[in-house]
Amino acid sequence: MQEITAQELKDRLARQNEMQLVDVREPFEFELCNLGGELIPLGELPKQANRIRRDVPVVLICHHGFRSAQAINYLTQRLGYENLLNLKGGIHAWATQVDPTMRVY
């Protein structure tokens, strides 16, 4: 599984590289803090996988990186995705390493 660090993601976003952000947390978590992108809770992934692009890099995000890793395993093994990156350390890593003003939970 390929991973991307919070700093690497920040750099890619600053360069405006085309990518899709997919947050697999629950709606209440997304409301607390998020990086934008699309909210597809892990439990909804089988029904909503068609929203995930195959033509650009896709970064999957959760709280600490575990649920997003599960999502990547599902998408690669069951649906053949090859363009997925796991945000290492999740949104918590972003908040502690990139944006200290972001709410943590």
From TrEMBL:
SMART domains: RHOD (SM00450). Residues 15-103 form the Rhodanese domain. PROSITE patterns: RHODANESE_3. InterPro entries: GlpE_sulfurtransferase, Rhodanese-like_dom, Rhodanese-like_dom_sf. This is Rhodanese-like domain-containing protein. It comes from Pontibacter ruber.
